[in-house]
Amino acid sequence: MKEELFEFLKAMKQPSSLEECKQPKVILGQEAFGRLFWKIKENQEKIPEILSVISHELSQMDRLRACCSAYFCGSMIEEVGVSNCGEVMVEFYCDLIKSCYEFLEFSSKQEDEEIEDLTEDQITEQTLEKAFLEMPDAVRSYYGCNFITLAIMDIITRDHSSRRLLRQKNCYEMLETVKDFIPNVDYITQVYCACMKLPLLVLAPKEKRGFLAEVNDVTNCFHLLTFLEAELYKSGLAKEYQLKEYQFNEEIYQWATGEKMPFCGRTVNAHSQYYNYQVLNKTGNINTLVSDLIWGEMCPEAIPQFHGIATIIMDSETAFAGRSWGSEFVFCCHEGLNPYFHIERELTLEEVQEKLSWDQ
């Protein structure tokens, strides 16, 4: 095993050519990958060790070959989990995204365009050849990015510390630009916003009820609100929280949990209205003149905190109660995610009255 690993790492440090950039799959078919792959098949117990060694060597490799090596790591992560490779691979990936962005900046200048106006068709052969002469690692990063992105998805969906590190790197704007050219990056931007065991307070002032919940791996508030209503129903609380004419849909619920993927478009209807805490007046009642809605497209972690916890105010009587959204907002984009909405406990009447107070 040591010999095959040594030869693999040596091969991955060899500079890749422009032709290999155009056809990166040929690298995965090279002998170094094949020999190590079969050796790993014979020594499954060595996978965590091999995964650790390769991931920590990525920054020393040729950029294109590193992306292919990371893709190789992704297959091992699916077998044994993230282990200790998550954060080091995210670090490498963020640097790689910066290089991809620099390549797109270079290409846009060649076309005398703003980067947001650049299209893939405008990255000409002439531009590519010039870029490879001036910034070869940026070109290698760009053409290898689709491969490593699949591995990064395996990591940030399974490991919250790696997802936090991705956020700390403040590369979201670059990811938004790059995703228009490298399709897999779009999934990174979705998981980037997925909440991580978010404590949530839900209050229904008119019903004088409320509950505490924990929400995990949910990427937007349309997804969260779909979960909220379904879990109230499953807990036998739909009537108590005045979910008007709510009918549970098992298929949509399975989309929300990630048990199944949507195969057709559906409309999901809200059966209450949902606000942030600023809709409350000082007496704890809802001020219907203030439209502080929970916006569906926003990340759950962007819900404003009240008494130190993200808070949703339910109200079934306002004029905005007939909201709906498409099922494209209500699904789990990767099998590594574990989306759920757990109602932990209902509050007592005294706790509800205390939570509705602005005097704390």
C-alpha Rg (nearest Å): 24 Å
Question: What fraction of the residues are assigned to beta strands by DSSP?
Answer: 5-15%
Which stretches are poorly predicted, pLDDT < 50 over at least 5 residues?
none
The residue-averaged pLDDT reads 92
**What is the helix content?**
40-55%
Number of strands: 8
Number of helices: 15
What's the main sheet like? 6 strands, mixed
Give structural notes:
There is one protein chain. The protein is α+β, with helices and mostly antiparallel strands and 360 residues long. The chain has 15 helices and 8 strands. Strands 1, 2, 4, 5, 6 and 8 form a 6-stranded mixed beta sheet that branches. Strands 3-7 form a two-stranded antiparallel ribbon. The chain is elongated. The model has no long low-confidence stretch (mean pLDDT 92).
Produce a short descriptive summary.
This protein is α+β, with helices and mostly antiparallel strands and 360 residues long. Helices cover 48% and strands 11% of the residues.
